[in-house]
Amino acid sequence: MIKSGKPPKVFYSTARPETKSVETTANTLVIGEKVKKVIDDNFFYVNPIGKQLMKWQGSSEWCIERKQNPERMSEIYYKTFNEYDAFRKKSLIDGTRKMKSTFKNLALDKVFYSDFYSIEIFGKTRLGQELLYSKQSQDRELMNQMIDKVKPAILQIVDIYKIDGVGYIPPTVKRERQLMRQIKQRLNLGVRELNLVKIKTPVIVPQKTLNKLEDRIVNAKETMVVDENGAFNNVLLIDDAVGSGATLNEIAKKIRDKGICKGEIIGYAITGSAKGFEVISEV
Q1: What is the pLDDT of residues 167-218, one digit of tens each?
Q2: Predicted structure pTM score
Q3: What does the domain layout of the chain look like in residue ranges?
Q4: Domain 88-272 of CATH type 3.30.70
Q5: Which of 52, 108, 149, 188 sees the fewest Cβ atoms within 10 Å?
Q6: Where are the beta strands (DSSP E) in the chain?
């Protein structure tokens, strides 16, 4: 039987023959222990009907749905994951160099991600999937699951850079449960918060809908306000995802212009774009 839905409304239906064959196939395939561990630790996919496919079992199902050989694809996943993971140091990916090549006037001293949003062939990473669906579903459990994963990295930044001020990038899209508010509550950093405000406009234009960098810069410059007069030594700006980095950089500029930060401004996002990172594969 297949169980669908969540309490109080749960429905049961007869298992499809292909569902059983997927499970049987996954259990009979043979892969190396190193490959299996990477897949078990990192593979996560939400299929079109909302089912979470995880670990080796989930990756096998993902492959079979696409008529791909799970053993062959597991080797490709392992190789691809390691190529991108090479950019990670102490649980963080340093995106500063990429930002410097994007903006002539970079107001941020450092920019870090916990992971890339997506990678080649396999699409969104585990954090990328969790970020997308926790925002769309507004599911508190999924949000907390993701926040708990990235919290150690954020605490690491706070400690290393002696952060005494934190700013949470305001959301653009109105939702009943906002991820950024949940991040703030769950992190509970005990650090003074900068008051960042998103100006309400007649038509809401999210950054992700703008393709040109110039448009993203204008959007951030004209709709984000640093409503703060306190003094800080080092500031951490936290966003959920970074594409171009325009929002983080424009807010950092406003902080600099107001002269309220004497030291460094560090940017952090749960996920960032892999564009601009040179991934070298052996031929």
Answers
A1: 999 988 888 889 999 999 999 999 999 999 988 877 777 767 777 888 888 8
A2: 0.86
A3: 15-85, 88-272
A4: no
A5: 188
A6: 2-6, 9-13, 44-46, 52-54, 88-89, 92-94, 110-116, 118-119, 123-124, 165-168, 192-193, 196-198, 224-226, 235-242, 265-272
